[in-house]
Specification:
The chain has four helices and 15 strands. The chain is mainly β. The strands form two sheets. An eight-stranded antiparallel sheet has the order 1-4-13-6-7-8-9-15. A seven-stranded antiparallel sheet has the order 2-3-14-5-10-11-12. The N and C termini lie far apart (about 50 Å).
Length: about 290
C-alpha cells in the first residue's frame, strides 16, 4: 500500500509539472499569425525568430496557441528603426471577452531623433485606464532588448533588460480587481495607430518609410498552463514545487531591484495615471493609495 501511495504521488507531481511550459519555446511551435496578417511577416531561421511587418496594405498580429495563468513571459524585441511615428509595436497578455484581463507593453513610435515611449497598462475585468509611460534609457532599435512580464498571485512586474519599471500588487481582498482568475494568451502586433500614438495623433505615419519591420527573438514562456477553471487554484498553489513563482523570493522586489525601479521611475517616467487628478476629477483609483513596491 505504501508503494502504491508513493507511485500515485509521483504520477500526481508529474501531472502538475506538465502544466509548466518549458523555457525553450519557439515561435513556430508556440504561436500563429492572426488572419489578415501582412504577407511579408514571417518566422525565420529555426522558428526562434520573427519579423512583423506593417505597410499600407496591412499590419500583423501573432498570438500564442496556449493560455497561461502566472509565471514569466519573456521576449527579445528590436523595434522599428528610423521614422516610426504613428506605429505601435505591442507585446501583451490578454484573455478574451468584455470582462477580460490584460497586461500590456506598447511601444509608441516617433519621428527620427526622438525617443520611443514605453507605454504600459493593465486591465482587470475589462477595466484599464492604468497607464504608466517611460522613455527608454537606451536605443531600442539598435539591437534586441529583453522585455519580460512576471505575474504571480502577489504582483505583476514589468521588466526591461532585467530592470523592473513597474509593479502592480494584488489587493483583491480590499476590493481592488487583480488578474488572477483568467488564463491569458501572449500577443505581439505591429499596427497603424497614427490617430493617437505620436503626440496625440499630430504626427502621422510617413508611408514612404514603409515597410516598417519589428523583429522578435527567443519567446520564453515559463508559466502555468491554463486548463480551465481548475487552474485558478492549481496555478496559485504555493505548496506545488512546479509553481516556482509563488516562492517567498518572488513576493516582493529585492532591495537591489527596488533601487533599480526607483532609478527608472525617478529619471525616465513621463506619465503616471495615479498622478493625473484632472483626468479622474480628483477621484484617483483606489490602488493609487496602496503601496505597490
Amino acid at each position: 500500500m505504501a508503494r502504491l501511495r508513493a507511485l500515485l504521488m509521483v504520477v500526481f507531481i508529474s501531472a502538475i509539472a506538465l502544466n509548466q511550459i518549458l523555457v525553450n519555446a519557439k515561435f513556430s511551435k508556440s504561436m500563429y499569425f492572426a488572419s489578415g496578417a501582412n504577407n511579408q511577416s514571417s518566422m525565420l531561421g529555426n522558428g526562434d525568430n520573427l519579423q512583423l511587418v506593417l505597410d499600407k496594405t496591412a499590419g500583423t498580429r501573432i498570438q500564442s496557441k496556449q493560455a497561461f495563468l502566472f509565471g514569466t513571459i519573456q521576449m527579445l524585441i528590436k523595434l522599428v528603426p528610423g521614422n516610426s511615428a504613428g506605429t505601435v509595436t505591442a507585446y501583451y497578455l490578454s484573455s478574451s471577452g468584455s470582462n477580460h484581463d490584460e497586461i500590456d507593453y506598447e511601444f509608441l513610435g516617433n519621428v527620427s531623433g526622438q525617443p520611443y515611449i514605453i507605454h504600459t497598462n493593465i486591465y482587470t475585468k475589462g477595466n484599464g485606464s492604468k497607464e504608466q509611460q517611460f522613455y527608454p534609457w537606451f536605443d531600442p532599435t539598435d539591437g534586441f532588448h529583453n522585455y519580460s512580464i512576471h505575474w504571480n498571485p502577489t504582483e505583476v512586474v514589468w521588466y526591461v533588460n532585467s530592470i523592473p519599471i513597474r509593479v502592480f500588487r494584488n489587493y483583491g481582498n480590499e476590493g481592488i480587481a487583480y488578474p488572477n482568475k483568467q488564463g491569458m494568451r501572449v500577443y505581439s502586433s505591429l499596427w497603424d495607430a497614427d490617430n493617437w500614438a505620436t503626440r496625440g495623433g499630430l504626427e502621422k505615419i510617413n508611408w514612404t518609410c514603409s515597410p516598417f519591420v519589428a523583429k522578435f527573438s527567443q519567446f520564453r514562456p515559463r508559466a502555468c498552463l491554463w486548463q480551465g477553471l481548475a487552474s485558478i487554484s492549481q496555478c496559485a498553489s504555493n505548496t506545488t514545487a512546479a509553481n516556482w513563482y509563488t516562492s517567498p523570493g518572488y513576493k516582493q522586489l529585492s532591495y537591489a531591484k527596488f533601487g533599480q525601479l526607483n532609478w527608472v521611475r525617478d529619471n525616465f517616467m513621463i506619465y503616471d495615471y495615479c498622478k493625473d487628478t484632472k483626468r479622474f476629477n480628483g477621484q484617483l483609483p483606489p490602488e493609487c493609495f496602496k503601496q505597490q513596491f
